[in-house]
Automatic annotation (TrEMBL):
Pfam families: adh_short (PF00106). It comes from the Bacteria. One of its GO terms (molecular function) is oxidoreductase activity. Its EC number is 1.-.-.-. It is an enzyme of class 1 (oxidoreductase). It comes from Nocardioides ginsengisoli. This is SDR family NAD(P)-dependent oxidoreductase.
Length: 258
């Protein structure tokens, strides 16, 4: 389970452990993932940079030592905000390396390592479903995750595999990644709502998705319905996004004044 030192990944690890799985946590921050694993009985951990494609095979081999690999969660992600033409190329590369190539490499390692029925859960975002001005690069990477996941499921089904792939698209969630851009004007669209999801809410929805035959799910479900409607008219979707962003800017200013 990548990116599981904190936030959504750690919440997933706890839920999977409660469901009887032996969990293997990975994160780029060794001290963080070690501390996280210590909070879950029977859990183990590995330091991992998901940008290293070979690292996923190492993680899969370690997981196989613990028992048959049945669930693989690709959760690690990064976020950059602002006008996309202002981003440093290194930051754009990192976004795609972590958010997209990391998911692809992890999924490939999981498919190769699973010897029977298995589940792969890729954490995308509602940013994959509709325009997110200010988060264009992030939205592009998450749209890629959603597209890859659904297409991979088709390929596995055609091959007669017992492995199923799921893509979870949560709305804004109270994580350190979101907190880090709380005062960034480019990320204002994230702060338009009155409430953010809690990581455990996302994990519960993910567990439900893993137990189903549904390929993709938005959290909350209503966000998926709204996105599908707005996708029929990109111009309308952009107008709604602009309005949402203005609300987020007001909320950011209120937060700064407290």
């Amino acid at each position: 389970m990548t990116g599981s030192g904190r936030g959504i990944g750690l919440a997933f690890a706890r839920r999977l452990a409660e469901a009887g799985h032996r969990v293997l946590l990975t994160d780029i921050d060794e001290s963080t993932v070690r501390a996280a694993a210590e909070t879950i009985e029977g859990a183990t951990w590995i330091q991992q940079d998901v940008r290293d494609a070979e690292s996923h095979a190492v993680v899969a081999a370690r997981a196989a030592e613990l028992g048959d690999l049945r669930v693989w969660v690709n959760n690690a992600g990064v976020l950059i905000a602002g006008e996309p033409w202002t981003h440093l190329q290194a930051d754009v590369d990192r976004s795609f390396d972590v958010n997209v190539r990391g998911v692809i490499a992890g999924s490939h390692a999981a498919v190769r390592a699973m010897t029977g029925p298995g589940r792969i859960l890729n954490v995308a975002s509602t940013a994959a479903l509709a325009p997110v001005p200010g988060l264009a690069i992030y939205g592009a990477t998450k749209a890629a995750v959603l597209s890859f996941s659904t297409s991979l499921q088709g390929d596995l089904a055609r091959a007669g595999s017992q492995i199923r792939v799921h893509a979870l698209c949560p709305d804004v969630t109270a994580t350190a990644m979101v907190d880090d851009v709380a005062t960034d004007p480019g990320a204002s669209i994230l702060f338009a709502g009155s409430r953010q999801l809690e990581p455990d809410q996302v994990a519960v929805a993910g567990m439900e998705l893993l137990a189903s035959r549904q390929v993709a799910r938005a959290v909350p479900r209503a966000m998926g319905a709204v996105a599908r409607l707005t996708s029929l008219s990109p111009a309308l979707a952009l107008r709604l996004a602009a309005s949402t962003r203005r609300t987020g800017e007001k909320n950011q200013r209120r937060g700064a004044d407290r």
